[in-house]
Amino acid sequence: MSQYRDHGAKEAKGSEMTALFSQLKILVEKKVAMFWQVENFEHYIREEINPLGLRVQIFPTFEDMDNMFKKRWENNLQQCTKIMMKLLIEEYQKRILTSEKEIDELYNQLEPFKDMDTYKDQEQKIKGHIDTTVKDLITKKEQNFWRDKMAFKEGKAYRWLIRKNQNRPQRRTNLKKTKGWKNDLGSNSSLNSLSSARSQSTTQSSRKQKWTSPERGNDNKRHISDNGPTAQPTPTEAKGPPLGRGKHPTTTEDTHQGGNINDPK
After folding, report:
1. Whole-angstrom Cα distance, residue 213 to residue 104?
2. Residue 172 and residue 170: Cα distance in Å, rounded?
3. Which pTM was predicted?
C-alpha cells in the first residue's frame, strides 16, 4: 500500500516539476526575444539606418522638389525613427530585468526537484530549444538587416513616388448625370431652335399688337396667327541573449553555473 502512495507522490512531484519547467521555457523565450530586439536596434543605430517596420513614410505634397530638400526631409524622418528605437531599447531593458527576476523565482521553486532523475532531462530540453530559437532569430534578423541596408544604399528606403500627392482629395463624378447634362445643353441644334422660337414668338406678338391697334380701325385688322414652331427642350479611390544575468553567447551550452540556465558563466 505504501508503494502505491510513494508512486503516486512521485508522479505528482514530477507533474509539478514539469509545470514549472514549462513556465521557465516561456519566460526564457520571452527574454531571448527582447534581448535580440535590443541588439537589433543598437545595430541599426550604429549603421545609421532604420528597420522597415519603424520607417516613417510621410511626405509633403509639392509637385516637384529638389534633391537637397528631399535629403533633408529623409534625414528628419530617420531621426524620428532613431528616437523611437531608443525608446524601445529602454523599455525592453526594463522588461528584461523583470523577466530575470521571474526566472530566478522559478529556479528557486525548482530547487527541491533537483534530486529527481528527470530534472536534468527537462533542463537540457529547454537548453536545446533556446539554442534553436537563438539561431532562428539571428538568421531572420540578419536577413532583414541586409534588406534594409541595401534599401538605404540604393536610395529606395523612402517611397516618394508611391506617396506622392497622397493627401489630395479625389473628386468623384457622377458620369451618368454628367453625360446627360452634356447631351442636353451641349447640343447646338437644341439651343438654336429654342432661341429661334423665342425670337419668332416675340416678333409675331409685336405685329399682332400693331395690326389690331384702334387707330387703324376694325376693317384693317389683320390677325397673324401665332402658330410658329416652338422647340421643346428636353430635361437633362550576432550575439546570443542572456538567459539570466549578463550577455549570452550564440549557443546556450554551459551558460550558467550549477546547471542553472539563468546564470551564464
Report:
1. 120
2. 6
3. 0.60
Stretches where the chain sits below pLDDT 70 are 1-10, 162-265
Reference 208, options 199, 220, 227, 221; nearest CA is 221
In 3D space, the residue among 177, 104, 131 whose CA is nearest the CA of residue 29 turns out to be 131
Give Cα 183 distance to the centre of its chain: 46
Tell me what pLDDT residue 65 has.
87
Residue 28's H or E segment, with its range, is helix 2-47
Burial class of residue 158 (count of CB atoms within 10 Å of its CB; 0-12, 13-18, 19+): buried
Q: Which amino acid is at 103?
A: I
Distance CA 167, CA 184 (A): 36
Residue with cell 479625389: 170
Identify the pLDDT of residue 204: 55
Q: How many CB atoms lie within 10 A of CB 49?
A: 20
- AA identity, residue 207: R
